[in-house]
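Key result, reporting period 2: structure in, sequence out.
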């Protein structure tokens, strides 16, 4: 059975249908995602992609090799290679051959503002400050002679 291929243009087309973005923006998004993953793996990070898998850099040690044409043994040098480890969810979906329907969504409306790192503090009751009483004013109801002080 011949293997079917799904190229970047077709992927961008599917992404534009699902996300509502243009095909050009979808293709730019795919290339940007690829660049970010590649750069982080080169820097030594393991990139975890939710429900898909993990991309990482692996160092293969030096080993003995054999050239059957010349019938000689050769030492192959240490090398660094990229490695993809599929997630258990991805493995299950592929082995069960089930296809999930993806509902279209608007990427712009899905972007949520960052939540503040500060907790919402409960409001503190501020004590009421009473206006100073004008003792010389008859409207206040308190006359200077009515005040009593204890010493």
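The corresponding designed sequence is given below.
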């Amino acid at each position: 059975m011949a293997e079917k291929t799904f190229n970047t243009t077709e992927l961008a087309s599917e992404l534009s249908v699902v996300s509502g973005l243009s095909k050009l923006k979808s293709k730019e998004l795919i290339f940007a995602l690829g660049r970010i993953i590649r750069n982080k793996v080169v820097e030594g990070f393991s990139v975890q992609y939710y429900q898909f898998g993990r991309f990482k850099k692996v160092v293969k040690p030096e080993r003995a090799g054999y050239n059957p044409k010349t019938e000689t043994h050769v030492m192959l040098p240490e090398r660094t290679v990229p490695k993809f480890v599929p997630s258990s969810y991805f493995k299950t979906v592929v082995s069960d051959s089930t296809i999930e329907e993806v509902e279209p969504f608007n990427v712009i409306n899905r972007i949520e503002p960052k939540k503040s790192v500060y907790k919402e503090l409960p409001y503190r009751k501020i004590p009421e400050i009473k206006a100073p009483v004008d003792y010389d004013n008859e409207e206040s109801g308190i006359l200077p002679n009515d005040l009593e002080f204890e010493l």
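The chain is about 30% helix and 20% strand. Residues 103-109 have pLDDT under 50 and may be disordered. This case is discussed further under Risks and Mitigation.
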